[in-house]
Structure formats: structure tokens, C-alpha cells
Amino acid sequence: MTIMIAIMVAMFFSAINQTIIGVAMPRIIASLGGMDYYTWVITTYLLTMAVATILVGKLSDIYGRKPFLLGGIGIFMVGAFLSGLSADIFQLIIFRGITGIGGGMIMSTAFTAVGDLYLPRERARWTGLMSGIFGISSVLGPLMGGFLVDHFDWHWVFWVFLPLGIVAFAMIFKLFPKTAKREGESIDYIGSLFLTVTIVSLLLAFSLAGEGPGKYAWSSWQILGLFGLTAVALAVFVFVESKVKTPVLPLSLFKNDIVTVSNIAGFLLGMGMMGVMIYAPFFIQGVKGISPSGSGYIMMPMSIVMVFATTFAGNFMTKTGKYKGLAIMGLSITALGIFLLSSIGPATPVYVLVSYLCIIGIGLGASMPVFSLTVQNAVSFRELGVASASSQLFRSLGNTMGIGILGAVMSSRMASKMQESFASGGAGGMAELPPEQAKQFGSLMNPENLLDQPRLDEMIGGMPADLRPVAEQLVASVREVFSDALTTTFLAGAIIMVVAIIVAVFLRAIPLVSAMSAGKPAASPGEKGNVKAETASVQNGK
Q: Which of 100, 132, 338, 541 could cysteine-pair with 49, CB 3.0–4.6 Å?
């Protein structure tokens, strides 16, 4: 119990530092500039997190979980501190990449540690509780993030929870047991290298493709070259893994249809939910004109119902040992909620928006704990770490690729609607205005201004009184374009979730193992059914 408390404190520290940034990012971008590079702040974090997750998964099987939990917390703290010192968007991107390495190490080892301590049936309850930590952090994070950027300097968004990191580090150091290196296994350096190249080149391709500064067309040689490098690196990786004694990602895992289907479903779930987690705050602040703290309050009910849903899902799986119907139901509810978001607009009442977000929260809470649990339940104890890491990896890949795909959908829709809305060469007679005033009106057409309502009000207020109605009309037109682009993005997310439902239908359900179903009482140290004895045996290489 004390070990689990220490693990959950570490997870909460990592999760709260992610969720606190979501609502604050629009204001941070307004301060640092670089809206075209906004997704890179998230993409870089997810990219480094994905690489760290899968590499640490195998290493923790060999060397134990403790050193990687401690190392992850330390690296995360350094990255968070440096992020708060960022002077421009490019520094923030780099420092978030460092933070992602620490986050990947924490997440990979934390979920695997639950597998060390409990059999799958009992593991379900803890998996639900740990997923609930993300829900709790999703409640507190947006509220704290919005409050901080409204009342303090945005740098404190990254620094406010650093003391909690120190507490988490001390608890893991004191409470978590040290395990011996597993004998007869070595590090797969070559496989690790080519797996890293595969992941990085694939995610870079999806991140760099699109429109705007620093982007390349999907058919450009840069993007096609990255996809080509991905294919070559993947082929070499598969060859290497088929030959080495202790592969970093055993290919035999994917011969298990439960692992494969679960990871594909988790990948699609991660991809689809990005449409909500990233772009819902954009809609609330940019389209509705609500402050960051107000945005946090609007997102809060979704997070609260997500906590209750994950707790219910964990208890349901523990009591019944069933999960397939829960997964399909959760994905279906999520798809419905995201589809409803695609119907909203500037005139949509806030209570309607909140109700749609709550539907999504119920669906995510019910489905998120399932797929990591099914993977752990389908593999042997010796592969627990790498199997859990593969689940986290596919979800991270889904998150990153979802950002690239959904970002491309939003950018493309916004560009076409902008051209359609302002094809006449200006609004309200802009063409006849003096150059200086025309420049002022032109700056109002930048969607970045919608994310900082006080600055937007100041810009309009600084114009001559007779031009303010024209400026407000122009801003309203840009707001309509921004709204249309975001709702189209939500629709794309809903379609992805429908595909996830179809995949989940093919998930083969097998009973969740419990101490009773294992045929042995968990209390006897000498019996195979004893998780603690088996853990010690495996980690000592026996």
C-alpha cells in the first residue's frame, strides 16, 4: 500500500504538470509568439516521451523499476524548471522535450510496477485508480493553470508543483524496494537505436507536414524522405530483433492478437482524444472569448466525471473479470461526445458545451484503463515491463500523430474558410483605408489575437471610435472561421473514435487472472500464486 501511494504521488506530479499547461498554453503563446509552432510544444514532449517509454520498459525488466522512477522524476523536474525560464517558443519546445524524457520514464515504470504487485484481476482496481489520477490532475490542472496566468506570471505554471516532485522523489527513494539485476540479459543497443530512429522519423513526418512556417507539404521530398527513413529503419529493426537474444521490443508480443488489437485501439484512442484535450481550450478561449481560468472551470466537469468513470471501470473489471463490453461502450460514448462537439458554434451556450464534454469524460474514463490492463493480462510475467511500455508507446504515438493529422485538418479548413470569407480583399471597406489603419485591421485577422481577449480589447479600443464597429465585425468574422475550423477538427476526431470502436469489436476477451483463478492462495510465500514471491524470483533471474 505504501509503495502504491509513492507511485501515485510520482504519477500525480507528472500528470499535473501536463494538465496545468493545457489551459495556460494559449496565453503563453500570446506572450512568446509562434502560434504556428504551438503544436511543437506538445509534439516534442510526446515524441521524447514515446522513445523513453519503450526503451525504459525493457531496461526496467532487467534492472528493476526504482532507478528509472527516480531518474524520471529528476529529469522531469529539470525540464519543468527550464521550461519556466523560456525566453521564446523554441526554447520552450526544447525544454519540453527534456521534460518528456522524464515523463516517459515515470509512466512506463509506474504502470508496470502495479503489474509487479498484483495479479490482473486485482490490478484492474489499481489501474482504474491510477487512471483516476489523470482525471484528478485534469480537474486541478486547468484550474491552477488558468488562475496562474490570470493573476501571476505564466512562468509559475511550470514551477508551482516542483516541491511535489521533491516529495515524490523522497517517497520513491525511501519506500520503493531495490531489486537485483536480472541475470543472463543484456541491453539491445542496435535495436534501441533503430527503434528510436523509426519512432522519431515517423513522428517528425506527421509533425512537420502541413501548412504554415516550418511546415512542408505532405508530398514534399522532406516528408516523403522521413516516411522512407521510417520504413528503412523499421525493416532493419525487425531484422535485428529477430536475431538478438534479448530484444528491446520482442516481436513475439505482436503474435499475440490481444496485445496487437489492444495497442491499435489504444493508438486510435490517443489520436482521437487529442481533438478534445488540445482544441477544446482553443474553442473556449478563442471562439467564446472566455479567460483561461474560466476555461479551466468549463473543462473541470469533464475531468470530474472521468474520475468517477475510471473508478467504476476498475471496480467493474475487478468484480466481474470482464472488459470487452466496457471498452466498446466507453469508446462509443466518447465518439458520440466528440461528434456532438462538431455541432457547436460561437452562439452555443456554455452549459451545452459542458454537457458534451461530460459525455466525453464518461467515455474516456470507461475506456482508458482497459487496454493497458488487457496487454498485461495477455503476456508472461517476464515480459510485463516491455508489454506495458508497448501499450504506453502506442498511445503516445496516437497522441502525436493525432496532433499532426488533426492540426493539418484545422489549418487546411481555416485557410480555405479565410480565403472564402475575405475573398473580396477586405471587410467593411478595408481597401479604402489609409495604410496604417489597414495594417491595424490586418493584424486583427490573426487568429492568435482571439486567444488573448484583454489584448484584443485593447487593440480595438485603440482605434478611432468610428472604426471600432468595423473592427468588431472583422473579429466576429475571424471568430466564425476559427470556430468552423475547430468543429471540423472535432468531426475528424469523432471519425477516428468510430474506427477505434470497430477495432475493439475484434478484441478477444479472456478472463482476468486473480489469486483464486490462478488456483493458489496469494498468502502462501512458497506457492506460484504468490505475486510477491514470483516477483522476487523473476527479478533475481531465477
A: 100
Residue carrying C-alpha cell 496604417: 436
Q: Which three cell numbers stand for residue 74?
A: 529528476
- CA 227 – CA 224 distance, rounded (Å): 5
Q: Pull the grid cell for residue 40.
A: 511543437
Q: What angle do CA 242, 246, 251 make, to 5 degrees?
A: 40
Phi, psi torsion values for 209, nearest 5 degrees: -75, 140
Nearest to 3 by CA among 65, 73, 77: 65
Grid coordinates of 79: 525540464
| CA separation for the pair 120, 320 (Å, rounded) | 12
User: Is the separation of the CB atoms in 100 and 70 below 8 Å?
Assistant: no
- CA gap 72, 83 in Å, rounded: 16
Q: Give CA–CA dist 177/169, Å, rounded.
A: 14
Rounded to two decimals, the pTM is: 0.74
pLDDT in tens, 153-201: 888 888 888 888 888 888 888 887 776 666 656 677 888 888 888 888 8
Do 290 and 354 meet the contact criterion of CB atoms below 8 Å apart?
A: no
For the segment 205-223, what is each residue's pLDDT rounded down to a tens digit? Answer: 877 776 665 678 878 888 8
Amino acid letter, residue 491 = L
- Percentage helix, strand, coil for the chain under 3-state DSSP, each rounded to 5: 80, 0, 20
Cβ atoms of residues 525 and 518 within 8 Å: no
| Phi-psi label, residue 183: left if phi above 0, alpha if psi -120 to 50, beta otherwise | beta
User: Can you read off the three cell numbers belonging to residue 259?
Assistant: 496485445
DSSP H or E run through 1: none
What is the C-alpha separation between 318 and 518, in angstroms, rounded? 15
CA–CA dist 269, 128 (Å, integer): 17
Angle separating helix axes 2-32 and 120-151, nearest 10 degrees: 30
Amino acid, single-letter form, for residue 161: F
What pLDDT shows up at residue 88? 83
State the sign of the Cα–Cα–Cα–Cα dihedral 8, 10, 13, 16.
negative
Cell numbers that stand for 364 in this block: 474516456
Q: What is the pLDDT of residues 305-321, one digit of tens each?
A: 888 888 888 788 878 77
Q: Are 346 and 288 in contact (CB under 8 A)?
A: yes
What is the percent of the chain where pLDDT is above 90? Answer: 13
* Best CA proximity match to 185, nearest among 112, 239, 247, 116: 247
For residues 69 and 109, the answer to whether their CB atoms sit within 8 Å is yes
216 bridge partner residues: 209
Closest CA to 120 of 395, 517, 508: 517
Question: Residue 86 is placed in which grid cell?
Answer: 523560456
With the C-alpha atoms ordered 394, 400, 403, 404, is the resulting torsion angle positive or negative? negative
Closest CA to 119 of 355, 373, 367, 438: 373
Could you please report the per-residue DSSP string of 257-324? Answer: HHHHHHHHHHHHHHHHHHHHHTHHHHIIIIIS---HHHHHHHHHHHHHHHHHHHHHHHHHHHHH---H
Q: How far apart are CA 132 and CA 139, in angstroms?
A: 11
